[in-house]
Amino acid sequence: MKGNEASGGRTIKTLQFGELTFEDKHIFHFENGLLGFEELHDFVLISEEETLPFKWLLSVEKPEIGFPMLSPWHIDLNYDPGENFNLKKLVIMSVITLEDEAGIMTANLKAPVVLDVENQKGEQVILPTDRYSPNHAITHKEKKEN
Amino acid sequence: MLVLSRKVGDVVTIGSTVKITVLSYDRGIVRLGIEAPKNIPVHRKEVFDKVIEKNRKASQTNLSSLKSALSKSGVNLQNEIKEEVQPETIKFSATKNDNNNIGK
Q1: Could you tell me the pTM of the whole model?
Q2: Comparing C-alpha atoms, which of A87, A138, A14 is closest to residue B69?
Q3: How do strand A42-48 and strand A28-29 relate by DSSP bridges?
Q4: Average pLDDT over residues A32-41
């Protein structure tokens, strides 16, 4: 699964990010994949300067599969995934969906992706709370002035 | 599919760790009590299906469609957020994509 270990780095060809070179330390291993993508296990996180603070969770195995992501705290400062998450070693991110041509976007606050930065593991967790929606709108219809 | 008839108060076990109790039945609505270890997530199937649907749709997004969406819609984002740890990230710049910097 991990090629080119001698050089410590590997390069994959991606449609969106061209040839992408990274190291093993960048890979987050998702034992169970993401929901609906159970066959994909290794992902890297990309920050692209023009779309910050969005990040991209890109499949190493299938680089045409990539998810726009945002920290849920960018959306709701009081976001609270619950006590089970130790935020000293876990990074929580929400999958963003582009809903239509008009640019409407939603965030999945109900099922965040949890990245463990201590052992580079990841999983998507469905929170038991009804407080958060998988369909949380983050856009206004009209572009904001100024 | 295994089909079982149970009365209110009866229990079904799955493996040695999952117990499902029929709590009540009223006008077509069955209330179930489910006990399962933490590592076995239990969800209403609609929630599960919704997350799969959202993931599938999100996976179709690309850089240009996100940029185009951002130019069309206003997005209200909190800028000052507190995060205790940062994930390993690969920095990418479309304007200098011939030398991708590997982020620290």
Answers
A1: 0.83
A2: A138
A3: antiparallel
A4: 95
Tokens 């920095």 identify what position? B91
Residue numbers in A near B77 (CB within 8 A): 53, 70, 74-75, 138
Inter-chain CB proximity B51 and A110 less than 8 Å: yes
pLDDT in tens, B89-101: 898 887 654 444 4
Q: Where residue B104 falls among pLDDT bands split at 50, 70, 90?
A: very low
Q: Judge whether residue B102 has pLDDT over 50.
A: no
CA of A129: which chain B residue's CA is closest? Answer: B43
* Beta-strand runs (E) in chain A: 9-14, 18-23, 28-29, 42-48, 55-59, 66-70, 90-98, 105-107, 113-116, 121-124, 136-137, 139-140
Q: Collect all residues of chain A within an 8 Å Cβ-Cβ radius of residue B43.
A: 126
Q: Which residues of A touch B68 (CB under 8 A)?
A: 103
Q: How far is B20 from chain A (nearest CA, A)?
A: 17
Give, in order, the Cα–Cα distances in Å from A41 to each of A22, A66, A76, A111. Answer: 16, 13, 29, 17
